[in-house]
Amino acid sequence: MAANRSKRYEKIEFLGEGQFATVYKAKDKANDDRIVAVKKIKVGTRAEAKDGINRTALREIKLLQELSHPHIIGLQDVFGHKSNVSLVFDFMETDLEVIVKDANIVLTPSHIKAYMLMTLEGLEYLHNNWILHRDLKPNNLLIDDKGVLKIADFGLARFFGSPGRVYTHQVVTRWYRSPELLFGAKMYGTGVDIWAVGCILAELLLRVPFLPGDSDLDQLTKIFHIMGTPKKEDWPNMDTLSDFVQFKTFPSTPLKNIFTAAGDDLLNLMEKLLALNPLRRCATAQALQMPYFSNKPAPTPYRRLPRPTSILSLVKEQDQATKKDLKRKHLDSTDSATYGNRNAQGQCYFNLAFAASKLSDFESAWEAYLHAALAAKDSGDAHNEWQAYEGLGSVAFRQGKLDRAVQYFQKSLGIVSNCPEAAVHDIQQRIIGKLTHALRSQLAYNLKVAAADVSYSTLINKDVKSVKPKRKKKYKGRSVSEILIHGEGAADSSLSDSECEDEKKRISGKGGSGKKSKVKSSSHGSLPKESKAPPQHTCSDLSDSDSALDIKYLHTDHLKSKLSGKDTDGLSLVPLMDATKNHASHRHKKDHHADATTNSDSLTDVTESDME
């Protein structure tokens, strides 16, 4: 019977593995191929599993079979196979931790209110049924493909309410652990879950963990730096707890200074959720009745909530040691509030830049990336700093500001080179690719302008006598780029239609119907004063060039052969930027000192194919 039930679920893909369980995405063949998540619990040795399954799994099964709520994960089936037991859950697309960490997602006040509303409604149902979850954190709040949030992972859950009942204080992930648990309390109530909800709300606002302590003492230090050291009158029985330690007095930091964009109604809710004395924390029903949930803006409907750009593993069974490696950079205990505020501002600028880029609003995107770079530099976050400069380079490139793009990519590459990250080589290769593309585009543009200038000079020498006086002025007052690159030169001349067409083809290197004519050079062959080199953009707003790499040479035999007039076998190093400058300088000298027998073909030997 059990074997048949195991065959009912066809595995699709592996989702994740923890210390005690493995999770798969599966298809329920007996229920129209419905997608589910199968959690296979590892029983262990016979001594460890003499009752069939371990206590944690038994507790989770017992609780979930009695629960049914839209915001509580649904247990669909339970079956044993060989020495394992499998739990079948609703398949959930992602979790709140993925949403918080996704830099492409902009969390609006309406989004945050919707997530908090669903969390508190699910928690209210648990507390009304005398159940403590005891492990609330963002990655235990799962989200399905419809945007509905559900509380999951009941391995540490307990019934409460029995007088004198003693519990262990080693519950809840440390970053979301309440002060009474950190002081060793063994008799506690719903306040431990309420505190965790307050930490989750703060993380939604900051986009980083609010209180990331390295140890229990460090966790308490971070709490008291923000909330202030509790006094005897504020928490009378605090010193009776088994692990109580006397801390020096820290003044409280106003929450408004940390959550600068939050409204008063939200800050009032957070103060109730994060009260140091557990008896002064609000209950779930009181929290849901606070003005924050009835004031505008209204919560976002489920289906309109953001979805992550990449769907990650949904049901995660990771122990404390593995979890520590996945979390964000620990904040220093003395300035966690300041660092969190700066980091949140930088993340906000990144979100604005991504949104503006998608709307092709490059000016707004450039400004947002600039602020993100400055915020990252102030907070010493090299990771965000090189990302901001890479974004600035991409925006400048899309705007056609090639000089500026090159400088930004060089700056980003210089910062990445000093980063100790494991994937720094792949990042370097990506930025080098963008830098190479920008340099080649810049060189091609300069060569195209140079060829256009030479062709313009030839055109003036050839046809200046045939142009009527009233038409001749149109050549003199316009730049080379306007006349030839934009295709307006022939149209403004007095040439016939066929001659214009032939001239365009000859200039582009494709030839015309007429024969090539030799043109004598004269003083008219020099460039007119109105023609200028392409504008060179500066980077005065971000002048830190000490860490930017000076990349002058790239591998290319094609460009070198075209610049030198010789073919080469194999790769050569071509100084791209210097070659461009030398070519322009050579062009001006050539125009002034050309012989009278110079052939027009030699002046237009740089074609569009060469520029590419």
TrEMBL record:
For this protein, the record's InterPro entries field holds: CDK, CDK7, Kinase-like_dom_sf, Prot_kinase_dom, Protein_kinase_ATP_BS, Ser/Thr_kinase_AS, TPR-like_helical_dom_sf, TPR_rpt
Q: Which residues form the Protein kinase domain?
A: 9-293
Q: Where does the chain bind ATP?
A: L15, G16, E17, G18, Q19, F20, A21, T22, V23, K39, K40
- Catalytic reaction equation(s): L-seryl-[protein] + ATP = O-phospho-L-seryl-[protein] + ADP + H(+); L-threonyl-[protein] + ATP = O-phospho-L-threonyl-[protein] + ADP + H(+); [DNA-directed RNA polymerase] + ATP = phospho-[DNA-directed RNA polymerase] + ADP + H(+)
- Enzyme class, spelled out: transferase
What GO cellular-component annotations does this UniProt entry give? cytoplasm; transcription factor TFIIK complex
CDD domains according to UniProt: STKc_CDK7
* Keywords, comma-separated and alphabetical: ATP-binding, Cell cycle, Cell division, Kinase, Nucleotide-binding, Nucleus, Phosphoprotein, Serine/threonine-protein kinase, TPR repeat, Transferase
TPR repeat ranges, renumbered to this chain: 386-419
As one GO molecular function, the record gives: ATP binding
Q: Where is the composition biased (Polar residues)?
A: 596-606
Stretches for region Disordered: 492-544, 579-612
Q: Could you name the domain of life of the organism this protein comes from?
A: Eukaryota
Subcellular location as annotated: Nucleus
Q: Where is the active site?
A: D135 (proton acceptor)
The GO annotation for biological process reads: cell division; positive regulation of transcription by RNA polymerase II
Enzyme Commission code? 2.7.11.22, 2.7.11.23
What does the sequence similarity comment in the record state about its family? Belongs to the protein kinase superfamily. CMGC Ser/Thr protein kinase family. CDC2/CDKX subfamily.
Give the protein name, as stated in the record.
Cyclin-dependent kinase 7
What gene name does this entry carry? Eka-Phusducin
